[in-house]
Amino acid sequence: MTHDGGATGGRGRLLVLAGPSGVGKSTVVAELRRMAAPLWFSVSATTRAARPGEQDGREYHFVSESDFDRMVDEGEMLEWASIHRGLHRSGTPAAPVEAHLAAGEPVLLELDLAGARAVRQRRPDALLVFLEPPSWEVLVDRLTGRGTEPQDVIDRRLATARIELDARREFDVGLVNHDVRETARRLVDLAHPSDAAACTDTRAGAIGPRSAGASE
């Protein structure tokens, strides 16, 4: 299977960034925005109410439950999920993603593992990038650093993190997040490949391409 993300023929490449909680996905995306990276950042649709300071179309597309139902029923969601035990739902509208890709613009989706797997099903040409911590100890520090949660909550969080780390072999490329700026630069390189070697990243924090026998 090739993973050119539609980069040939003038199309943009679709990148999906995922990884365990606490690995720094949002921080990396914030750095990409700060550096005005040549990417289009997908905006999710959500059924929750807007919070103070949020603007429709910037942080989220705020939609009603009925509109969300319609988008799901009509196949307009690239992926979606229930959040906080069903209190609301969020998902990635497919149409704007496709429009930007068709215009030759790379698109970045920041998703959880379930979302990344859903995109793989809908768009097998997407390049799935797994963000990994420098070490297990670093991730533990990030997940427990506040020290305000009960031990059982911390234990569940760490158990979940181990499961999430085990998913790295499902991904095409892995980046170890040693340095936020360097990780952001490498994502830009992946979004704008000069040749097929972009998918066979050398070390410098990379896991490398998914093995041929990895699960889909």
Describe, in plain words, how this protein is organized in 3D:
By secondary structure, this protein is of the alpha/beta class. It has helices at 25-34, 65-73, 94-102, 113-122, 136-144, 151-165, 180-191; strands spanning 14-18, 40-41, 45-46, 61-62, 77-83, 88-93, 107-110, 127-132, 173-176. It is globular, with a radius of gyration of 17 Å. The chain contains seven helices and nine strands. Strand 5 (77-83) and strand 6 (88-93) form a beta hairpin. It has two domains: 1-39 and 106-216, P-loop containing nucleotide triphosphate hydrolases (Rossmann fold); 44-104, 2-Layer Sandwich (Guanylate Kinase phosphate binding domain). Helix 1 (25-34) crosses helix 7 (180-191). Keywords: ATP-binding, Cytoplasm, Kinase, Nucleotide-binding, Transferase. Residues 12-192 form the Guanylate kinase-like domain. ATP binds at residues 19-26.
For this entry, give a set of tags.
216 residues, 5-stranded parallel beta sheet, transferase, 2 domains, Guanylate Kinase phosphate binding domain, nucleotide-binding, alpha/beta, Rossmann fold, GK/Ca_channel_bsu, 18% strand, Guanylate_kinase_CS, 4-stranded mixed beta sheet, 9 strands
